[in-house]
Design brief:
Number of strands: 22
Number of helices: 8
Shape: globular
Distance between the termini: 174 Å
Helix content: 10-25%
Structural class: alpha+beta
Strand content: 25-35%
Strand order of the largest sheet: 7-6-3-5-4-21-14-17-18-19
CATH topology of the largest domain: YerB-like fold
CATH superfamily of the largest domain: YerB-like
Order of helices and strands: HHHEEHEEEHEHEHEEHEEEEEEEEEEEEE
CATH class of the largest domain: Alpha Beta
Largest sheet: 10 strands, mixed
Length: 399
C-alpha cells in the first residue's frame, strides 16, 4: 500500500465544498440581477436614457408673506359748477341762478323798524311813496331771508322796476292805478301778483311785536311756495348789469361817503375799504342800520343814486299825497363802487326794459359783484358826495 493510495479520499470532499461556494456565489449574483431587473433603473438614469428629465419629488410651495390690506381711497367729489347770479354777479349753482326773482314791498315808517330781509336782497330800491315817507322794494333772487317785512302797499313805479325781471310782486294792497295794472297784467304779463289781501294767513302773517299796519311778514319758504302757486316758474335770467371783482385793497380809497336827504329821513353811506362795502346809517345814528333777520349790519357793495322827476298823482285822493314817477326815459345817476364815484346816467326804454347805468362816456358801468342799493330821489332832493383818498393821498377822481 502506497502513501498516495491513502490520501485519495480527501480530494473529492474539497472539490464538493468548492463547488458549493461557486454555486452560492452564482445564486447571489442571479438574485441580485433579478432584484435589479425588477426594480428598474433609477428615475434620473432612465430619464437621461430617454432624453427627458423626469421631475423630482414635489416640493411644497413657499408660504407668501402677508401684505397689509390697502385703505381704499375715498371717491373724489366732483367740483361744483358755479355761475354768476344774474342780479349780483356772485358765484352760485345753476339751480340758484335760475330762481324766479321775487320783489317785496317793505315799509319804511319808523314804527316798522327794524325791518327784516335787507341782507338777503340782491337789489334794494328806495323811493318816495307818500307823505314824504319813502318805501323799499327788495328784489330777492340768489339769497332768501329767514324773515322779511313789514310788507306794505305798492305804487305804479314799483311795478315798472319789478317788471324788469317779470318778478313775483309781494305787497299788501296799493294805490288805485297800481292795483288796476295788477288786475290786468299781474298774471305774468308784467309781474306775478301776490297781494296780502288774498294770501295773508297762508303765505303771510301778522306779528305781535309791531302794530298794524306795520306787522305783515313772510319768509323764504312761504315766498317760494306762493310764487309757484301764482304760476311763476324758474328758468334762465338775462342779466341787466355787468359785474366785476373788487379792486385790490391798496387801491381802495378811504373816506368815501354818500348822503341822501328824503323829507322823512337822511340816509348816509360810509365806505369801508377793508370789506369793500358801504355801511348804511339812518339819520344821525352812530351805528349802522341792522337787518332784523340776521342781526348783521346793512352794507351793500354798490350804491346808486337815480335822479327822477316826481309829480303828484291825480288819483282822486289828494289827501294821500301820492306820487307818480317819470321812470321811463333817462336822467342823471351817481354810481359808487369800489369806493369810487362815477357821475353818469340812467336809461329805461320801457316798462319791461331794465334800468341801465352808464358812465360819462356812455359805456355801461361795471359794478362790484354783490348787493346794490338804488336810492331814487326827486330832482329837488339834496344829496352830498365826499370823495375818498387813496393811501397815496390822491383823490379818487370823480368821473
Amino acid at each position: 500500500m502506497t502513501e498516495s493510495g491513502r490520501a485519495a479520499p480527501a480530494r473529492p470532499i474539497r472539490r464538493a465544498i468548492a463547488g458549493l461556494f461557486v454555486l452560492a456565489a452564482i445564486g447571489l449574483a442571479i438574485g441580485a440581477a433579478a432584484f435589479l431587473a425588477s426594480a428598474g433603473p433609477p428615475a434620473n438614469v432612465a430619464a437621461a436614457a430617454s432624453g427627458t428629465l423626469a421631475p423630482g419629488p414635489p416640493t411644497a410651495a413657499p408660504t407668501p408673506t402677508p401684505r397689509p390690506t390697502p385703505t381704499p381711497s375715498p371717491t373724489p367729489k366732483p367740483t361744483p359748477v358755479l355761475v354768476p347770479a344774474p342780479l349780483t354777479g356772485l358765484p352760485v349753482s345753476p339751480e340758484v341762478a335760475a330762481r324766479h326773482p321775487i320783489a317785496v314791498m317793505i315799509d319804511d315808517h319808523r314804527a316798522a323798524r327794524p325791518q327784516a330781509g335787507f341782507n338777503a336782497a340782491a337789489v334794494v330800491w328806495q323811493a318816495p311813496a307818500e307823505g314824504g315817507i319813502p318805501r323799499y322794494m327788495f328784489i330777492l333772487q340768489d339769497d332768501l331771508p329767514a324773515l322779511i317785512g313789514p310788507i306794505r302797499s305798492v305804487r305804479q313805479y314799483h311795478i315798472d322796476w319789478a317788471a324788469e325781471w317779470n318778478a313775483v310782486l309781494v305787497h299788501v294792497g296799493g294805490e288805485p292805478g297800481a292795483m288796476a295794472i295788477l288786475r290786468s297784467q299781474g298774471s305774468g304779463q308784467l309781474v306775478w301778483n301776490v297781494d296780502g289781501f288774498r294770501f295773508e294767513g297762508t303765505y303771510m302773517w301778522r306779528s305781535t311785536d309791531h302794530r298794524a299796519p306795520h306787522n305783515v311778514y313772510s319768509d323764504a319758504a312761504h315766498l317760494r311756495q306762493v310764487a309757484a302757486v301764482v304760476g311763476a316758474t324758474d328758468g334762465p335770467i338775462r342779466p341787466a348789469w355787468t359785474f366785476g371783482r373788487g379792486t385790490r385793497p391798496s387801491a381802495r380809497p378811504i373816506g368815501t361817503t354818500l348822503t341822501i336827504h328824503y323829507p322823512y329821513e337822511t340816509i348816509t353811506y360810509r365806505y369801508d375799504a377793508d370789506s369793500n362795502r358801504y355801511l348804511r346809517f339812518i339819520d344821525a345814528a352812530a351805528e349802522p342800520q341792522v337787518d332784523a333777520a340776521d342781526g348783521e349790519a346793512v352794507a351793500p357793495s354798490n350804491v346808486v343814486i337815480l335822479r327822477i322827476p316826481f309829480r303828484p298823482l291825480d288819483d282822486g285822493h289828494p289827501d294821500k299825497d301820492r306820487l307818480l314817477a317819470e321812470d321811463i326815459g333817462s336822467g342823471d345817476a351817481i354810481i359808487s363802487t369800489n369806493g369810487r364815484i362815477i357821475h353818469g346816467t340812467w336809461s329805461k326804454a320801457s316798462v319791461t326794459e331794465p334800468t341801465l347805468l352808464f358812465d360819462t362816456t356812455g359805456r355801461p358801468v361795471t359794478l362790484t359783484a354783490g348787493q346794490t342799493f338804488v336810492q331814487v330821489i326827486d330832482l329837488d332832493y339834496a344829496f352830498e358826495i365826499s370823495r375818498g383818498i387813496t393811501e397815496r393821498g390822491i383823490g379818487t377822481g370823480v368821473r
